[in-house]
Design goal:
The complex is a heterodimer of chains A (159) and B (234). Chain A has 159 residues and is mainly α. Chain A contains 9 helices and no strands. The longest helix of chain A has 20 residues. In chain B, a hairpin with a 7-residue loop joins strand 6 and strand 7. About 12% of the residues of chain B have low confidence. Classes of the chains: A mainly alpha (159), B alpha+beta (234).
Amino acid sequence: MGHPMDFDDLYRDSYQKVYAAALASVGERDAALDVTQEAFTRAFRHWPRLSKELWVEGWVMTTAINLCRRHRRSRVREVLTTVPWGTDNPLSGHSGRMDVLREVSELPTRQRQAVLLYYLADLPIAAIADLMRISEGAVKAHLAQARTRLRQRLEVVDV
Amino acid sequence: MSEDLDTLIKSLPQTIQAPSAPSIDDIKKAGLRQRRKVHLLSGLAAIATSLLVVSIIGQFPSQLGRSSTELNTDSQEGANMTTGGAPTPSPSPGWEFHVNEVKGLTIQTPSDWDVTWGYENQYLIVSSHATPNGELCGPSGALTQLPADGVYFWMFEPKNITDWSFPSRPSHFTLDPSTLGPYEGQGCVESYRITFRDSGRFFVAYMSFGSNFDKSTVSNALAALDTLAIDPNS
């Protein structure tokens, strides 16, 4: 760790994950697109120094999640049902993942942020604590509470 | 079940059909435009402050009679502002710089917070949510629309102040419960009052919170105020 990251690599490898985090946070496709684009734009703006940081992807995702707070709508549940699948839908007949996205989007703000940074950005607890400006214990608590709530509310389909 | 849940969450990016990503060249162009704007504002701040030096000295002749230790301490406290086109340090992740070259001030806030450079009694307004501003006196209207988990703080420099009883700026701002109360122009909403001096300038700030805020809101608001950089030459 420590060698400067290439922005093109970051963009290619992280766009999908940042978009997923944005969609889970804001619940609207167009808003998620705008937020994702803005988050990467800001990353490039700060790139001379940001490229040397450890958790660049986490920085971008955190920026996107924070930007989503401006756009968050109460119609999350309705909009998520219209997110288009690809033409080759490997999950045809399986509603598990759409329910997961919906339930993640309805988590309390801090729990949702911790979940997205932990699972999508694959960040360690210490990095999440640093990005969220809370203690590591608080991060673990948010994750535990989120998992408990998701398990209680989801009908998980064995895959 | 725990393992299945973890797998489901981790696989979300692969299962969501994201639209085609914008051209990376467009992203880079937009980022460069933002970067140039910040550097331009920093450069303009240096030019504007140098033009105001003589008139500012004329407004505060009493500072010349203060001890050099006291004045040096104040200027050191405010000397963290970058001027003259020096590289701007990266803000914390998810935070952004806001610059006012005329008033010689810079502050960082979470990226999704609103920052407005206003006028006399509210010339710096920071809010965690989009709130109306433009009120001529106090922000009573904006405060009534503050969300339950929100924060709204504003700051100004009272005119013709030479009262060095304003405490020196602390290393980290805190809220003094004894200052909590309704103040003029704020309607029925209570605020904390913070006064401090820095770099020979005197500031008054008010900070109001919604009815159901959490500790992170308070810590973010105070952390934002901690980032306030003051040009001693403004």
